[in-house]
Design a protein that fits this description.
The complex is a heterodimer of chains A (about 350) and B (about 150).
Chain A: E1 4-8, E2 20-26, E3 29-36, H1 44-48, H2 53-61, H3 68-83, H4 89-117, H5 121-142, E4 151-152, E5 155-156, H6 162-188, H7 190-196, H8 204-209, H9 214-218, H10 226-229, H11 250-274, E6 291-299, E7 302-310, E8 316-322, H12 324-329, H13 332-335, E9 339-340, H14 344-350, H15 355-359
Antiparallel strand pairs in A: 1-2, 2-3, 3-9, 4-5, 6-7, 7-8
Helix pairs in contact in A: 2-3, 4-5, 4-11, 4-14, 5-6, 6-11, 7-11
Chain B: H1 3-14, E1 19-24, E2 27-31, H2 37-48, E3 52-59, E4 67-75, E5 79-87, E6 92-94, H3 103-114, E7 117-119
Parallel strand pairs in B: 2-5, 6-7
Antiparallel strand pairs in B: 1-2, 3-4, 4-5
The chains are: A alpha+beta (about 350), B alpha/beta (about 150).
Chain lengths: ~350, ~150
């Protein structure tokens, strides 16, 4: 049978961000594929060397349009480590609260995209409708729906009063009430099950070979979660489950994110319960003492890695950022075999692509 | 394998050229010579199977003129970083993709951004830069700040 190449991207209705995937097919069978990224490469690691630490918080925020907060959180913890500063406990909890809200909104966004790709518009609308509640909370707290600018070096930019807290609790309650029915429906819906069970399985060995992290790894039974393994404060004081599924197929990748959404909702509650009183910022110097540090944090898509070296000036000497999607992307060519053409969207959506993150 | 045993095995593999550097935020940091790098990687993968490679960082330090430093950041229950130093005029280092397929993207990025040659693999096509990029590797240009 003749072989054909289906080019998907860099611009394609299936994709929200530019990436080029060339898929080799024979009839309905997918034989293989190749990948090209870099279409939204902005050179942020190099640009960071030309900006002060304070300016860099705003640059780093723009790495990603979904998980912007976890990037600035990781960067600020790195700078604070070099400064030898510990931020006030209340600021740590506010950072974590924003991280968990971001995880809920990222997972709901992903569930919607998956549903849209397999033609289940009902679930798409419900999950994005519920995601709006999370964005409303984040906007009410920080003033921004997507770029929150919540972090400063030395703390967070805003405090929460009693009114904020009751608003967040009320909205989270409403979100839980509305969402749990949808999440239960996803688990039992025959269309989702038919389109995902057994599709494009990834073995635990493949996960480790390609150093893949986050929900994709956990869906193949690899229990990695930097919130537990290398906890930034206050995660060492919080109790939560690391969700894993053994199957490794598109179904498991869906279920991990469904369960993590519930888990993050619970985490938001415990963060609010435990939130200590006190200031939310501490004064820091503009110049950062010479030194180097490594910080690992858990973004919605998995381990995000920051290496930061200071030469004692106001400008970072080297900032290295490894985002979770970059690791997961290397699996795409591996996954694009022994599937059918109709499974391509499920495979591409399954690893939760964040191209802006990967390209930086 | 705990830290003491790792150190013992590394000394066996690398010999006197092994240097234990200061920890970076609780990460163990070892400096190894390039000639022994494949042996060290083989030791890690033999002991731990598919060890998790978080990232490869390349950089030029002001105090090490004419040299490029390459750091391999692993995670095995804790952070383990290996530091290798290459001459900037011909930075060459063995590729790890045979042992750790996930190193592919990180090697390609280090290759295009710093002009590092990875031996033992076919080519390092551009990862982030355009195919027709004909300027110097972006990180090897002149510094903006003196």
């Amino acid at each position: 049978m003749t072989k054909n190449i289906i080019p998907i991207g860099p611009q394609h209705p299936l994709l929200k961000e530019p990436i080029s995937v060339n898929i080799e097919v024979s009839g309905e069978d997918v034989l293989g594929g190749s990948l090209r990224i870099g279409y939204v490469h902005r050179g942020i690691e190099r640009l960071a060397q030309e900006r002060t630490y304070v300016q860099n918080v705003h640059l780093i925020e723009r790495i990603c349009g979904i998980c912007s907060h976890v990037h600035t959180t990781t960067f600020c913890y790195a700078v604070e480590d070099l400064l030898g500063v510990e931020i006030p406990p209340r600021a740590q909890y506010i950072r974590a609260l924003m991280c968990e809200l971001e995880r809920i909104h990222s997972h709901l966004l992903w569930i919607g995209i998956l549903a849209k790709h397999i033609g289940l518009d009902m679930v798409f609308m419900h999950s994005w409708h519920n995601r709006e509640i999370v964005l409303d909370i984040m906007e009410a707290l920080s003033g921004g729906r997507v770029s929150h600018a919540a972090n400063l070096i030395g703390g967070v930019r805003f405090d929460m009063d009693a009114e904020h807290e009751s608003m967040v609790r009320r909205k989270l309650q409403k979100l839980g009430d509305q969402l749990f029915g949808v999440l239960d429906a996803i688990r039992t819906d025959p269309t989702i099950r038919a389109r995902t069970i057994g599709v494009a399985p990834i073995t635990a060995d493949q996960i480790r070979e390609y150093s893949v992290v986050g929900p994709v790894a956990r869906a193949s039974g690899v229990a990695v979660d930097m919130r537990r393994d290398s906890p930034l404060p206050p995660y060492d004081k919080l109790d939560f489950n690391v969700i894993t599924y053994p199957e490794g197929d598109a179904w498991a990748r869906t279920m991990v994110r469904v369960d993590e959404t519930r888990e993050s909702l619970k985490l938001c509650e415990s963060i609010l319960d435990q939130m200590p009183e006190g200031p939310v910022t501490t004064r820091v110097r503009r110049k950062v003492p010479a030194g180097e540090t490594v910080i690992r944090a858990e973004a919605p898509r998995g381990e995000v890695f920051y290496y930061l070296r200071s030469d004692g000036s106001e400008f970072p000497a080297r900032l290295k950022i490894r985002t979770p999607t970059l690791a997961a992307l290397s699996l795409i060519p591996v996954q694009l075999s022994e599937i059918r053409v109709a499974d391509i969207p499920v495979v591409l959506a399954g690893i939760d692509l964040c191209i802006a993150c990967a390209d930086r | 394998m705990d830290n003491n045993e790792l150190l013992f095995r590394l000394k066996q593999t690398v010999g006197d050229d092994l240097a234990v550097l200061e920890t970076i935020n609780n990460e163990m940091v070892y400096a190894v010579p390039v000639e022994k790098w494949l042996n060290v990687a083989a030791l890690l993968t033999k002991e731990w199977g598919n060890i998790h490679l978080s990232a490869i960082t390349a950089q030029q330090r002001e105090e090490l003129e004419g040299q490029i430093e390459v750091m391999y950041h692993f995670w095995q229950g804790q952070g383990i970083t290996f530091v290798l130093t290459l001459p900037a005029d011909h930075p060459e280092i063995p590729s790890l993709i045979e042992m750790i397929p996930g190193a592919d993207f990180y090697e390609r990025e280090a290759a295009e951004m710093f002009g590092i040659y990875f031996t033992g693999r076919e080519a390092t096509p551009h990862l982030l830069l355009p195919d027709d990029w004909d300027k110097a590797p972006p990180f090897m240009g002149k510094e903006i700040h003196d």
